[in-house]
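Record 1 of the preview.
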Amino acid sequence: MHDPSSLGRAEAEAAAERIKGMARRTPLIRLSHDGSTEIWLKLENLQPIRSFKIRGAANAMLAVDAADLADGVWAASAGNMAQGVAYCARELGVSCAVVVPEGAPQAKIDAIEALGAQICYAPFDDWFRIYASREYPGMKGRFVHAFSDPLVMAGNATIGLELLEDLEDFDAVVIPYGGGGLSCGIAALLRQVAPDIALWAAEVDTAAPLAAAFDAGRPVPIDHERTFIDGIGGPVLFDEMWAMARQVLEGAMVSSVAEIRRAIRYLVKNAAILAGRVTTRAGDPARRIVCVVSGGNIDTKILSEILNGQD
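->
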């Protein structure tokens, strides 16, 4: 079980110092829309791999001795963490292998291969079990977990540090929830240093185990449908992440696939809708919201369909 109190400013600042040569400090921009609520976007899609995952991957690899990386690194990922680990491995001059689920987006596979990683395909269920077992036949070297790792979460928490430095007096943050490493990493930090800020996770309704757990008070089985939104949502909620999430997050906000498609196509419109749904810790409508744009890797064919109006 991860203890949120073990992830504070010191851990995040140490991670920020380690990763500054690999990950970028991304811009925080105000979104223009009609309405009184301010909406700010933290653009992690502008990272070298177009995803926040480089932060956690870099911290997990730079925080250990070089001898620990002598046999290389490996990861289990649908795409973004794989790119983060592969990018950092290339920069450090170590080998990298990635186990990906069958049916992973080709755009992400191409990007992983371009970074020099070896790809191993696995059936989805076998691939997903790696997150619990942390092992897979044929893999060697240091395993870099996509979310359930204190070093990975500390790397992700550097986003929270940047928010505090770049924006005054915001009262809510909305953070995508996949395995929980991003939302719990940022929220664990902010809950300690800025406890009045409301911290919300975001899920898609085809895979929303966190929202179901908040409703039931415990992890429960859910219906899970694979869609192009492969970076968030999963068939289960991991116990150690639930133990942390329930302490640092207000709850989970769930959007439909169609809403997410419309958000990609017309962010201003959906952001204005979001403004009426996000509340402060006191339950009042939030007046200044930060939304973490966690990545920008999407299959070009799907993106073309969305931009042409398909919901």
